[in-house]
């Protein structure tokens, strides 16, 4: 079989397959499961980098890892988030336009990141310190957070989903310098994500499609 199959990309492959399940869950009205899927995808994205750094990889494997990570991110945190936002906010001409913009912004952001990352690694193989624009993986935190807010207001907040997609998509492509999370930041983010995950599992059943 063509491709590479070291532990880090296997985690990425699993995340991609899970995101397809999340899309199917959203489209069939299993909203809680859809939110859980996108959150688990975010958890996978947090660990695939550290796993990759522990693996002995050739230059081809490293380049493949950069490409496959971005391709899978587009599905996990672009398409999956857009579908979830459309299902929760309702499908209309403006929500469809916003979702299209959100995915396009994700494509632009990931393509730009790939070019910059390849050039950066050539100059300095050390760890990245900042991002240009909001990382697309942030949708795995932002959308579930909106979902929890929706639960607090008793699922009467459908308008917030297209607004969230619009603002998040814009943040993907704005030239804003975002610090990259390292060990402490990832621990804090992981704890926050675990709390959100638990809340979504416990109370997310009340969420309904628009």
Helix count, per DSSP? 7
Strand content of the residues, in percent?
under 5%
CATH domain class name: Mainly Alpha
| Average pLDDT figure | 89
CATH topology: Four Helix Bundle (Hemerythrin (Met), subunit A)
Class by SSE composition: mainly alpha
Could you describe the largest sheet, including whether it forms a barrel?
2 strands, antiparallel
Shape verdict: globular
Numbering strands along the chain, what is their spatial order in the largest sheet? Answer: 1-2
CATH architecture: Up-down Bundle
Topology:
Blueprint: H1 7-27, H2 31-54, H3 59-89, H4 93-123, E1 130-132, H5 139-152, H6 160-173, E2 177-179, H7 183-203
Write a structural description:
The protein has 210 residues and is an all-alpha fold. The longest helix is centred in the middle third of the chain and has 31 residues, at 59-89. The protein has helices at residues 7-27, 31-54, 59-89, 93-123, 139-152, 160-173, 183-203, and strands at residues 130-132, 177-179. It is globular and about 50 Å long. Helix 1 runs antiparallel to helix 2. The chain has a single domain, classed as Four Helix Bundle (Hemerythrin (Met), subunit A) (Up-down Bundle), CATH 1.20.120. The protein is built from seven helices and two strands; from the N terminus they run H-H-H-H-E-H-H-E-H. Strands 1-2 form a two-stranded antiparallel ribbon.
Summarize the structure.
This protein has seven helices and two strands. The chain is mostly helical. The longest helix is centred in the middle third of the chain and has 31 residues.
């Amino acid at each position: 079989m063509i491709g590479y199959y070291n532990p880090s990309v296997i985690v990425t492959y699993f995340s991609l397959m899970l995101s397809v399940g999340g899309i199917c869950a959203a489209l069939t009205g299993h909203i809680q499961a859809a939110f859980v899927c996108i959150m688990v995808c975010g958890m996978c994205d947090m660990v695939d980098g550290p796993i990759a750094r522990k693996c002995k990889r050739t230059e081809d494997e490293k380049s493949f890892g950069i490409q496959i990570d971005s391709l899978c991110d587009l599905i996990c945190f672009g398409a999956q988030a857009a579908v979830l936002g459309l299902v929760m906010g309702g499908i209309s001409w403006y929500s469809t336009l916003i979702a299209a913009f959100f995915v396009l912004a994700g494509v632009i952001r990931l393509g730009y990141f790939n070019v910059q990352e390849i050039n950066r690694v050539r100059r300095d193989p050390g760890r990245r310190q900042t991002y240009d624009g909001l990382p697309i993986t942030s949708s795995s935190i932002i959308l579930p957070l909106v979902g929890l807010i929706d639960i607090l207001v008793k699922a009467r907040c459908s308008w917030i989903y297209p607004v969230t997609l619009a603002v998040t998509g814009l943040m993907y492509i704005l030239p804003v310098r975002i610090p990259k999370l390292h060990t402490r930041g990832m621990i804090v983010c992981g704890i926050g994500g675990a709390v959100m995950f638990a809340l979504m599992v416990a109370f997310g059943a009340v969420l309904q499609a628009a």
